Amino acid sequence: MLLLAAASLVAFVLLLYMVSPLISPKPLALPGAHVVVTGGSSGIGKCIAIECYKQGAFITLVARNEDKLLQAKKEIEKHSINDKQVVLCISVDVSQDYSQVENVIKQAQEKLGPVDMLVNCAGMSLSGKFEDLEVSTFERLMSINYLGSVYPSRAVIATMKERRMGRVVFVSSQAGQLGLFGYTAYSSSKFALRGLAEALQMEVKPYNVYVTVAYPPDTDTPGFAKENQTKPLETRLISETTSVCKPEQVAKQIVKDAVQGNFNSSIGSDGYMLSSLTCGMAPVTSIMEGLQQSPENCCSRGPRRDDSGKPNPRQDAEQPV
Q1: What is the pTM of this model?
Q2: Which residues form the signal peptide (predicted)?
Q3: pLDDT digits (tens, 9 = 90+) for 162-196
């Protein structure tokens, strides 16, 4: 009986594997595609640009520091696969002025064509206990991590819908799946990206545009090194329970998931388990993503009950939504 159940499970998984390509989005062809990467002068963003360039894409790098942009451009150009590829650099703060962001995206499209994939990787992390953080820190992180993704996405989405193709990637964090000690400002700004992505995916899916949210773990980047200098002890101890990933590994997985049109992008077995436990009712673009959504995550809770086991409408009314 046990062998029969195991054989049935294997057959079911194989069937899903065979059927999945029939309902999944058509993969985005990167050769010749125009990929815009914000925060592309270092860290995960630069590695994503390199990964796309290796596959034949044309790259627009967007960041604030011109010197770092030019340095990243030289590094990326070493990985060209043909002499037609171009790396365009644009220096702008994507979190400050939408009209400025819109203008530079237009300039990039005039030079390299419509944007096929936008990777929102601009961001930063500041940690500290809630009462120790300045209010300005919350405002700053929400501006950079959230609005810094809203503005570029807003600038490209209309053209993607008109062309009925495109990918928009939001690089969140595992701290955007699970609130952690010391990350009251950072986690909330990264959680906001998920809400944006879920709502946006519902709007653009009919136009064959797909959204991906990436949840990288601690990654060996200049930003991570700087963040470690001010981490509270408790936050550091939590961080040390897992290994630090290489940015190249993270970038490769994000590009793979974005090209396939997957909504969730997680790194490693720990990341997959965390995504399975926190997926809730996230958009589904494949059978495998659908299987991640367990009934416990997707079903809403029933009415709260008092000590006698009877429903307590008052407690329900007081429960925050």
Answers
A1: 0.81
A2: 1-25
A3: 999 999 999 999 888 888 899 999 999 999 999 99
